[in-house]
Design goal:
The protein is built from nine helices and eight strands. It is an alpha+beta fold and 280 residues long. The protein is 52% helix and 15% strand. It folds into three domains: 108 residues, no CATH class; 46 residues; 103 residues, Chitinase A, domain 3 (Roll). Helix 2 crosses helix 3 and helix 5 packs across helix 9. The radius of gyration is 25 Å and the shape is flat.
Length: 280
């Protein structure tokens, strides 16, 4: 791909050990990979992408993919029109390369500083022992929903499933979600995946966590998005995580904390040695 994407050191660190990239789309032979998309998503959400609801994640991911497709098409058209040979293009290109040299050097330097930071095992274990409440896997619900704009339509959909249970109810719900839902999850049968309490909008959250597994909401649930019909597919109870399960997470957190302190000291030293003059 012939694109440049700015990414902060956080994005570099989070993707350093990622699995091989998956091709998500091709545009006239050029590939758009999951690695490229994930880098943009991490930067755009400031590293908080994984904490977003699954429906929002899918929406953002698809938006980025479509944007990359558009960008590639425009790039190819610009090539055909000779834009890459124009004076304006060369000026902008040279200015961009100049900025990227500085940014890239800074990123590589920061990553080297980060990799040099070491965390002792005893510090990791001490943190785990001192913060037991932090390492609890919260209760999670696996839900599906059908989103419609009209309350009467929602009631009619609920009524059409009355009397169904078990796999017949699940199958019918998925079929109706694909046919009638206006939400981004429609193609997946309304599947929202697993999510903890408090991640969804209040009305949806309250309804979901009051329902039993294998049931459909008896009345439509209203939110700013419309009217939801909800199906509960599964429920995972809260559980305490073991040290082995969270050891790497704690180590990375402590490493990042140490990294920030080291960087603050290094930057203070560099600023003291530098001659910095602010323009008035």
């Amino acid at each position: 791909m012939k694109r440049y994407y700015a990414a902060w050191v956080l994005g570099l660190l989070l993707n350093a050990h990622s699995a091989s990239a998956t091709v998500l789309a091709t545009v006239n032979g050029d590939e758009i990979t999951s690695k490229e998309v994930n880098a943009v998503l991490i930067e755009g959400t400031q590293g908080k992408f994984d904490s977003l609801p699954s429906e929002k994640q899918n929406e953002l991911r698809q938006r980025i993919i479509e944007g990359m497709i558009t960008q590639e098409l425009v790039y190819e058209e610009a090539q055909k029109k000779g834009i890459l040979e124009s004076k304006e293009y060369r000026q902008e290109y040279d200015a961009l390369v100049s900025r990227l040299k500085v940014q890239l050097a800074a990123k590589v330097w920061e990553q080297e500083q980060y990799e040099a930071v070491k965390v002792d095992f005893k510090d990791v274990k001490a943190y785990f022992d001192a913060n037991p409440d932090e390492f609890v896997d919260k209760e999670k619900i696996h839900a599906r929903h059908i989103l419609v704009k009209n309350e009467e339509e929602a009631k009619a959909i609920i009524k059409s499933m009355k009397g169904l249970s078990g796999e017949k109810l699940k199958h019918e719900f998925i079929t109706l979600a694909k046919a009638k839902s206006v939400g981004p999850s429609a193609s997946r049968g309304g599947d929202l995946g697993y999510f903890p309490r408090g991640q969804m909008v209040p009305s949806f959250n309250d309804a979901v966590f009051s329902m039993r597994e294998g049931t459909v909401s008896s009345t439509p649930v209203h939110s700013q998005f419309g009217y939801h019909i909800i199906y509960i597919e599964d429920r995972k109870v809260a559980k305490k995580l073991s040290f082995d399960e969270v050891r790497n997470f704690i180590e990375q957190r402590l490493k990042m904390d140490k990294f920030k302190l080291i960087m603050d000291k290094k930057m203070a030293t560099l600023r003291e040695k530098a001659k910095i003059i602010y323009s008035k």
